[in-house]
């Protein structure tokens, strides 16, 4: 392995440890607070108690521990086992989040909603979890994952960032980081369409379509109903 590639892997490892742990802690903290508040106040989602919000925290923390443990070694995971585990854990978080959204929507049609404030808080946690979990999925998907991208900076990609089309306008060592993928997930969730990043692969398009659908349900049905109840 060349000195240049080794340097890229070390840089990727540092960035990954910092960005993944920060993202996971932000998401887990929001879920933990909502879970505690829900249990204390007796909030439910169509009869399911507040412990539902605590379920994703374990896989999220496991993801952070796995990433940090591998990143400290600085070696490329040739088998891809860490990446497969990471994608599986993120998929689990996304599924639980979608389940919570489904229960919240059912409450709209069954008349079990109590207050707009309660619904607004639950929708905010669901939407923020949606953005960050899909941002990390995009980050793991693109070009085989962050470590593979570090090994092959000019290899095939699943997303085309605007910085790639104007290399003279960005730093010579520019490369997409987790924040860039989180921004991609945010624009996909808020605009319901690609903004400055274009999907290149079918898997990227499918993931963006799923995120857009879940975000539209959260904003159109849940958030609008919460506002009307508050008003």
Please provide a written account of the structure.
The protein has 8 helices and 4 strands; from the N terminus they run αββααααβααβα. It has 231 residues and is mainly alpha-helical. The strands form 2 sheets. It has a two-stranded antiparallel ribbon with strand order 1-2. The chain has a two-stranded antiparallel sheet with strand order 3-4. α3 packs antiparallel against α4 (116-141) and α3 (81-110) packs parallel to α8. The protein starts with a helix and ends with a helix. The mean pLDDT is 84.
- Output the number of helix runs: 8
Structure classification: mainly alpha
Q: Helical percent range?
A: over 70%
Beta-strand share of residues = under 5%
First-residue to last-residue Cα separation: 62 Å
Q: Order of strands across the widest beta sheet?
A: 1-2
**Strand/helix succession:** HEEHHHHEHHEH
Could you tell me the number of beta strands? 4
What is the total domain count?
Answer: 1
CA-based shape = globular
């Amino acid at each position: 392995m060349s000195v240049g590639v080794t340097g890229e892997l070390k840089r990727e490892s540092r960035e990954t440890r910092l960005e993944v742990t920060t993202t996971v802690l932000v998401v887990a903290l929001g879920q933990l607070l909502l879970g505690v508040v829900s249990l204390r106040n007796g909030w439910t989602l169509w009869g399911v108690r507040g412990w539902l919000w605590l379920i994703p925290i374990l896989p999220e923390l496991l993801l952070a521990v796995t990433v940090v443990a591998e990143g400290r070694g600085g070696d490329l995971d040739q088998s891809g086992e860490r990446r497969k585990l990471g994608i599986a854990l993120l998929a689990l978080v996304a599924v639980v989040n979608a389940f919570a959204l489904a229960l919240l929507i059912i409450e709209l049609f069954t008349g079990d909603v109590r207050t707009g404030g309660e619904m607004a808080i639950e929708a905010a946690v669901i939407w923020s979890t949606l953005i960050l979990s899909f941002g990390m999925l995009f980050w793991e998907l693109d070009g085989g994952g962050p470590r593979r991208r570090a090994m092959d900076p000019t290899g095939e990609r699943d997303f085309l960032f605007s910085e790639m089309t104007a290399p003279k306008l960005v730093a010579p060592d520019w490369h997409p980081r987790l924040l860039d993928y989180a921004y991609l997930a945010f624009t996909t969730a808020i605009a319901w369409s690609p903004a400055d990043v274009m999907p290149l692969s079918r898997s990227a398009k499918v993931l963006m379509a799923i995120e857009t659908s879940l975000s539209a349900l959260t904003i159109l049905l849940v958030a609008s109903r919460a506002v009307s109840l508050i008003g």
